[in-house]
Amino acid sequence: MPRSDQRLTARPRIAADDRWEVGSSFPLMPASGPGTTRLPSPLRLYGTGRQALLALLRMGRTDLGWTAVHLPAYYCPPVADAAATVLPVRRYDAGPRGHVEPARPGPTEVVVAVSYFGDPPAAPATRGAALVVDSTHDPFAPWLPSAAADYVLAALRKTLPLPDGGALWSPAGHRLPAQPAPSLRHRAAAGQVLAAMCLKAAYLSGAPVEKSAFLSAFAAGEAAYGSTAISGPSDYTREVLPAMPVDRWRRQRMANAVVLGDALADVVGLRAHVHPFGVVVECDSAERRDALRAALVTRRVYPAVLWPQPPDAPRRHLDYSRRMVHLHTDHRWGAEDMLRVAARIRDVLAPATGPRRADAGDIPGGRGQQDRRPIRQIRER
Fold it and tell me: What is this structure's pTM?
């Protein structure tokens, strides 16, 4: 029997709309409906996208004679650090705003090209030993067959409601690493994240669940995912992934991005860039970005910074990372939700910005009306 001060007490449900929020990690969602995943074959599944890259680099070093890996200067820092545990890392000057200096690998060196926010990556000057495309932000993009990649990898849980999962395949038909079994440590970490997803789903539905309960479970699982040990995915991800209506969810994400981008088109002090992965808001200063981000969090909109860059990063990449936020537009939401997000952004910025609309000169590296081009193009992808 529990002690009297430890007994569970019933708590009332909360109206679901009072739990409305946009952004952050996925809750548990059913994998149902038309449009199931077009999985490449053969395919290797890992615990995380980082593990997929490490498995490939280890095979390349041991069996294929790879001697170095070229990574873009603008890349997820923990992933770059993990790659450096396998091969020497060379950085080439590439990022979301285009290439300044393409990779020039030697014959035994491999290049990783990144699909920033789901856009096709720029090709290296020379291919080297292999071209690897990181398509995490749009894992099954229709442009992938034309990318001429030797290998493609993706962290699946960035776009899909999965507790874990990284994928690796070779469009060119090259040899792949052996499929690993899930480790006990990874099973435990994925179990924590899956529990967090269940709790978050209950919370969003209005159940009497404390937000701190699923946030701490997410944090514990994420910390364990930082290991460089390689594992297969959880049983849940392996079984559910083929049943997910990825094509339909992808179309919803892109349609939502267009709605949000259009709604932000004339907001002073920022530029809204529409991508297959969502909307990137580029503010005219780091101070405005920080203020906007903090204010949105208090309004239950949780933007992401992709990615914070170290102080010694190239200046233009560091500046960009300090002025940008990514707004989620995935299938959890519809057009009305996107308009609510836009209204909150206007509420935050309106008191400080005044009536003048920003022009290209207000945004460092601004490109005037060209910034509107992705909004039209995304409808055609």
Answer: 0.90
